[in-house]
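so ive been stuck on this for like two days lol. basically i have the seq below and the ligand is guanosine-5'-diphosphate, smiles is in there too. i just want the complex predicted, nothing fancy, no docking runs or whatever. if the output looks off dont worry ill sanity check it later, just need somthing to start from for the group meeting slides
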Amino acid sequence: MKPDPVESPPRIKRVEFAGAIGNANQAPPGDLRQVAVAGRSNCGKSSLINAVLGRKKLARVSQTPGKTREINFYEVNGEFFLVDLPGYGYARAPEELRDRWPALIEEFLGDNARLEGVVVLMDARRGVLPADRRLLSFLAERETPVLYVLTKIDKLNRSGRRAALDTVRRDLGAPADQVLATSARTREGLDSLVESIFALFSPDPFEPTEAT
Ligand SMILES: Nc1nc2c(ncn2[C@@H]2O[C@H](COP(=O)(O)OP(=O)(O)O)[C@@H](O)[C@H]2O)c(=O)[nH]1
Ligand SMILES: [Mg+2]
């Protein structure tokens, strides 16, 4: 038997906008498996998606938070969809929209056989807020794998970072390595995030596995 080849980390090589849906009853733009990205409005979701997918303006960085109500699908390497969910919990959104977003999000996430996991973004300076808890308990009930990601970590100094990470880990009861610290601005943590996203698909579906 040949020894295992040294594995290079998975990379995002090719990204295409695949389509958008406005409600959870609409079909996704294909059968690929999905990893969704969720977070409060203004948590830095668009910036992080753009930074991770390596294309400026792929996901709109909004000057008017809370406006995006669609679910956008980005096809990555022709292998899976990164799914951009609407931001939730924006205090100044019109009431009927504010109430509808969580429903849209929960309908989409709740009954989705193609969903491999959800990346939940939280502003590092704000930590886990009630709307995040609602989403996280919803996902926990369904045993959906979750990656916890702090955003805008560049805004904190060293001790602030440690405090933010400790607080979130304690709040979530999450093991240390399940909470990632990221910055779209400095690109800190983005390689780890990409690796963690690929790791949601296990066993590795992107390499041919040899029968043993
Ligand atoms: N310092 C810093 N600011 C960020 C970062 N990511 C986003 N922002 C800022 O946070 C605000 C909201 O970002 P956006 O990506 O539109 O958030 P979204 O509403 O969650 O999509 C904008 O003013 C961004 O410039 C980051 O990593 N570092
Ligand atoms: Mg946005």
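The chain has one domain: 15-199. The beta strands are 15-21, 33-39, 71-76, 80-84, 115-123, 146-151, 179-181.
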